[in-house]
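Issue 218. Parser rejects a valid record. Input:
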Amino acid sequence: MKNFRKTILFLILINCNYFEDAKGEENLFLKFLGVGQTVSNTTLAITLTHPKDLSRDNYLNTNIFVTFNKNITRFNSSNFKITLEDKTNVEGRIEMNENVLSFYPSKNLSPNTTYIISLKAGNGLAKDTQSLFTTGSTVDNIHQH
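Output the parser choked on:
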């Protein structure tokens, strides 16, 4: 009989649009039932960059990857750039897949040159972030990118 009462209460709440009214709000009843969307309050953070910050002798045909602690959206050329030290932009293609931001340069990078990976605050990222890497003089012929 107790299960029958819980079922009736549950059906009444559904028919009263209780769940629709509670979307986007902290709702202990929905939390208790395990229903609803879990919202992460974790600040977006970079967990890994490739090439690593301050690394040297990177291949001229290297691709750049930035991994975050959670899924990302809306990064583009206005808030993510690869530049030379003189602020010249490196041309290439940006892709996002879940928590990884990938940059594929249009052509090989210049030899023995320092590059800056720049991400502007926003889209969940709390502050502007930069990472530096330097190329060497060789091309990776084994792992063609």
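Fixed in the parser; the record now loads. The chain has three helices and eight strands.
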